[in-house]
Amino acid sequence: MTYTEGQIQGILITSASPKFQIVNVSNDRGWEPRYNITIRVPKQMIASLVRALEHLNINGQLIRERGRRLDTILIRRRMDILRICDIFPPNVPTKSKGWTKFIRLMEKVRNGEHMNNDSRYEFEMIKNEEDRRERET
Fold it and tell me: Residue range 80-95: average pLDDT?
């Protein structure tokens, strides 16, 4: 069994968590964005979800967790994450509240804005603005 795009959207809404960090590195800019998406689903769903994601040209790393009923798919490559952002439905309640912020930040990465020397401030403003909104609600 393989999943349709609509079913994959439902799985992302209920079981995926995005992560976006700004880390200090020793390059010209002094910083770099790091991002990934983890999808935790029951073992019965893993094989068909991996096939469905591969059908959409999204590759992830399967992390088996012994003694748990849930395994993890870790997606790190920029193009794969941007494909997920493209199919992720807008303005829906999700397991992780950070999707709106994550998609905004990844759009800046898609446009190459993370390559500008002075863009770190803009990235941090988006991160902090969304964090403030989440705390207020």
Answer: 88
Give the E-state strand segments of 25-133 in sequence order: 31-42, 61-63, 70-75
By CB atoms closer than 10 A (0-12, 13-18, 19+), residue 113 is: middle
Give the span between the Cα atoms of 57 and 79, in whole angstroms: 9
Lowest mean pLDDT among 5-14, 41-50, 54-63, 115-124: 115-124
pLDDT in the model for residue 7: 93
Better-scored residue on pLDDT, 43 or 137: 43
Find all residues with CB under 8 Å of 42, minimum gap 6, and list them. 69, 70, 71
**Distance between CA 63 and CA 6 in Å, rounded?**
24
